[in-house]
Amino acid sequence: MNVAQAFDAEEVIRVGQLEIRYLQPSGRGNRMGAFELCVPPGSNVPPPHSHDNEELIYVLEGTLRFTVGAETRVLRPGDSMTTPTGVAHAFSNPHAVMAKALVINTPEISADYFREMAALINGGGPPDKARMMETMKRFGLTPIAPAPAPAVAAAAG
Question: Which residues form the Cupin type-2 domain (predicted)?
Fold first, then answer.
């Protein structure tokens, strides 16, 4: 059943360098969410994370480097990659032009998550990392700590 719900299709949520525009109403317990994601050249965000939903990313313009688990691929227009629930993933745009992608999540990640993160990140000064972690957790996201650097053996002397 399609239920028409009013929402602002022109709202662009800016989280640091990223721009997110939802393509349907969000935050109503939707089983699926869709948004357009714009990633400027040189961006290496977000940090690796996992979440409680499945995700599909489909590149519309430009090129993204997308890592899911141990697999890294370069995605160009028409390419896609999926992320299963609970699997670490990250993306970047190490290229010279803006990248745009369609992102579909099931269940959705509410636009409220991105609004709250935008308020924390764009607020001026260093963001409150504890509040960022709490916000991520509340919306079902888990940051992944970087792998520890390999131990260096002491030189025999």
Answer: 37-104
Question: Please, are residues 61 and 98 in contact by the beta-carbon 8 Å criterion?
Answer: yes
Q: What angle do CA 18, 62, 77 make, to 5 degrees?
A: 120
Domain spans of the chain?
13-142
**pTM for this predicted structure:** 0.84
Q: Answer for the pair 68, 87: CB distance below 8 angstroms, yes or no.
A: yes
The closest alpha carbon to 19, from 105, 106, 124, 93, belongs to 93
Q: Which CATH class is domain 13-142?
A: mainly beta
Q: Give the CA distances from residue 6 to residues 28, 35, 55, in Å, rounded to whole numbers and listed in that order.
A: 12, 16, 25
Number of C-beta neighbours around residue 112 at 10 A? 14
CA dist., res. 25 & res. 22, Å (int): 7
Mind listing the pLDDT tens digit for each residue in 56-97? Answer: 999 999 999 999 999 999 999 999 999 999 999 999 999 999
